[in-house]
Amino acid sequence: MEPWSYELAGRFDEHQFESEVLKGNALGDPHVRPLWVYVPPGYDDDPERRYPSIYNIQGLTGQLDMWRNRMPFRRNFPELADQAIANGDCEPCVLVFVDAWTSLGGSQFIDSPGTGRYHTHICDELVPWVDANYRTKAAAENRGIAGKSSGGYGAMVNPMLRPDVFGGLATHAGDALFEMCYLPDWRRSVRTLRDEYDGSFERFWEDLRSRPAFSKDTDHTLLNDWCMAACYSADEDGTVQIPYDPDTGELRPEVWERWLAWDPVRMVARHADALRSLKAIYIDCGKRDQFFLDLGAEAFRRELEAIGVTDYFFELFDATHSAIEYRYPLGLAYLAERLS
User: Fold this and answer.
1) 200: Cβ–Cβ under 8 A, 6 or more apart, which residues?
2) What local confidence, expressed as pLDDT, does residue 37 receive?
3) Which residues have CB under 8 Å from 329's CB, separation 6+?
4) Can you give the pLDDT at residue 4?
5) Taking the model in full, what pTM does it have?
6) Which residues does 167 contact at the CB level (< 8 Å), separation at least 6?
7) What is the pLDDT at residue 3?
8) Is 208 within 8 Å of 219 (Cβ atoms)?
9) What Å distances lie between residue 218 and 149, 156, 185, 229, CA to CA?
10) Where exactly are the structural domains of the chain?
11) How many alpha carbons fall within 13 Å on the CB side of residue 279?
12) Strand 143-148 to strand 168-172: parallel, antiparallel, or no bridges (unpaired)?
């Protein structure tokens, strides 16, 4: 009987990874993290065969065990990925499931004094360990990274920063074009800070941690604002700089510029050579995305065209931001074929 009868054709190995670069992070978050590695069916039968590897990262507030959550009558992504590989719809590959959760909700998979060195953790710790312990094809041209939302952001940014590590990306509704996906919510945040928290983010966090999280409609916007600031505009001592005046919402231009420097749309021109070197670029998003990330996907695509990258997959499909796990196997299959 579904869903309890789903049996994987491949295998998940669950590890605990002790990170050196996450030790002493500003949030005091754990430096020992769960790590899942999936090997495809047949992996144990041919000890000489090597496989491409694809790293899977999550959206904001995602922690590793959430990959096993399911929607009613639907398989979750690990099951969908296994099914696609077993059915021959996707080339066999090693899948790596990364935990980059923080107590602010996420890390954006970049290095920041406000959250921790999650970009370095992935590129310089997890990748070498996986290649040493699994039969991967240990070259950037055989290695990809994929994710949705904040994970889609990380999937865009990490290959731009380290094309020597990742040779392909799949971004599903990734954070991009920041004035469209972030800035409009700040009006609501400012009113909430004024009416409920005396203009203080500290009071918001005290309140959030005193009750069930997201039991107020405004929790997401305030958490998102602060978490993104901790990633994009934290000072070297860990002080988080918000890009707007919390009393009026007026932009703080010098802080906002720090955010824009991390916008994938604006990063394309600065990392043109890296993007031109990639073997696989997959971009998709729902046309009715609540955070208007379809506009960011289109802007990212246009910037790729501007630097001469024309070999990519792009689709805007009929959906919102929510419950689009059925799209992930499409990106996976695209990456696996091109990185094999």
Assistant:
1) 193, 246
2) 99
3) 77, 80, 81, 83, 84, 89, 90
4) 81
5) 0.98
6) 139, 140, 141, 142, 143, 144, 159, 277, 278, 279, 280, 339
7) 81
8) yes
9) 19, 28, 10, 17
10) 11-177+264-339, 180-260
11) 19
12) parallel
Q: In this structure, what token pair is assigned to residue 138?
A: 């240990």
Q: Which two tokens stand for residue 258?
A: 């720090």
Sequence-distant (6+) residues with CB within 8 A of 250 are 244
Q: Residue 2's pLDDT is what?
A: 80
Tell me if 176 sits within 8 A of 156, measured CB to CB: yes
Residue ranges in the chain whose pLDDT is less than 50: none
CA 304 to chain centre: 20
Q: If you count them, how many residues does the chain have?
A: 340
What's the rounded Cα separation, in Å, for the pair 170 and 89?
17
Extract the tokens encoding 101: 């959760």
Q: What is the pLDDT of residue 127?
A: 99
Retrieve residue 4's tokens: 């309890």
Return the structure tokens found at 280.
């696989």
Amino acid at 213: A
């246009």: which residue's tokens? 302
What is the spatial order of strands in the sheet that 11-18 belongs to?
Answer: 11-18, 32-39, 94-98, 53-57, 143-148, 168-172, 280-286, 313-317
Which residue type, as a one-letter code, is found at position 329? P
CATH architecture of residue range(s) 11-177+264-339: 3-Layer(aba) Sandwich (3.40)
